[in-house]
Write a structure and sequence with these properties.
Length: about 80
């Protein structure tokens, strides 16, 4: 669902941004660092909507399932690794 996709994306943002990148970001950007988190949240919203829509069609899926179901298993493999990298 959309709420689940949003929670996953927020978890990733907090895990990598807030807990790892907090001090260097504050040192370089100052108070504007907070607004960068807001901007990234807005930019990742279409990704969340896409993931929620794909999960309605393929409930047990991930990037591999989406690519392999309609194109080929190799396309599913590439899409999963491209997202990971």
């Amino acid at each position: 669902s959309l709420s689940t996709a949003m929670r996953i994306c927020i978890n990733v943002m907090f895990g990598t941004g807030v807990f790892i990148n907090n001090v260097p970001l504050a040192r370089e950007a100052g108070a504007l660092g907070f607004f960068s988190y807001c901007l990234i949240a807005l930019l990742s919203f279409p990704l969340m909507l896409s993931m929620a829509a794909l999960l309605t069609y393929y409930p047990s899926g991930g990037f591999y399932t989406y690519g392999a179901a309609k194109i080929s298993p190799f396309a599913g493999f590439l899409s999963a690794w491209a997202y990971f990298v």
